Amino acid sequence: MTLLHGARVLDPVSRVDETGDIIIKGDRILERGQFDPHGNWDAVYDCRGLAAAPGFIDLHVHFRDPGFTWKEDLHSGARAAAAGGFTTVVCMANTSPPMDRPERVEAFLRRAEGEAIRVLTAGAVTEGLAGRRLAPLRDLAAAGAVSLSDDGNTLQDPALLRRALLEAREAGLPVFLHEEDRAYIGTAGVNEGKVSKMMGLSGARDAAESSLVARDAALSRETGARVHFQHLSARASVEALRRAKEESAPVSAEVTPHHLGLTEDAMLEWGTLAKVNPPLRTERDRRSLIQGIASGLIDCIATDHAPHSAAEKALPFCEAPSGIAGLETAFSAALAALVREGPLSLSELVYRLSAAPAALLGLPGGALAAGAPADITVFDPEEEWLCAAFESKSENSPWKGRPLRGRVKYTFCRGRLVWPAV
Ligand code: DOR
User: What is the largest CA-CA distance in the chain?
Assistant: First the structure.
């Protein structure tokens, strides 16, 4: 048996925030309480001064495997996740080939079983993510996909999306939507506004997102199908989400640490490293996202971990791909924006990183009660560190080389220490 000794135990679901010990037996939490660290344990971790939380769960990552494994693969992605305190991740379907056939989902999940953390996948909504014909959604669900998404290949056709929602409802899975209407976008990855003007570009307007949030919330309400809005970036979208929830549409939403912590001004300092879809927007938008997660209107935090190579990010702005590698800095970035400079308690932040995403997909984890899976993240909320090197194969992050505060010290998944890697 393993003892985590003297931690600040944060279990938001059972409203626990107290100093104590956790016993791990096999892949489960056996008991919480006060125990003698000099007893007969297989291993004792001194967690005095640290906090122990349910393992973080990220419903939105890109591991690029198969197809783009020079940017990331299952193994490097899983290590980056563990380093960031994540014990479960859901990979997006935009691999090559994409996850649009059940045998591909099955093969992916078989390979993922070899990883130290729980690596799951979304299934594609349309064949080849092309937005024309529906993928076999029920078969993808039966093969083990936990959500359905074409992610950055936004479903522009409402009739097709409506059919997808009806099938997804039958399949029992929510549809995850990256909402960006191409009609409102000049150059993707930069907000249309002061910074895009300085760059001489017409960027992506916030209406590109909010108009589709409103449209698809209506489809969700009409069909009764669950819709999850990915990485909201704009105040207008938060307002559309508010109206949808007031009208009891079965919708949910996520926000990323980069949209919580950065604005379009980041483009001026970090250029393509801050290029992301949907783009970083204004301080007013950022404040609305913080209020949204503080009130629970926005359900959870997800990273949209989107690794790209240094060579790709060195391309001229319009050619460089969008995306930020976010797993390893997510906790520090969210802690700064939401707790140190924002309105959330540490326990509320932990909830939005663990129990809330677990509940959305009915995943194991999210609690530190006896009998729960021993998926546990131990962190030091105060430690200052320099984000110098990444476990991810890619380092496309505006936080690289910057001092951060709040650091993951140990990650346990299924009762095993998975970070630091042994
Ligand atoms: O910035 C982004 N990058 N947004 C997306 O939706 C896709 C992602 C990627 O796959 O690189």
Answer: 67
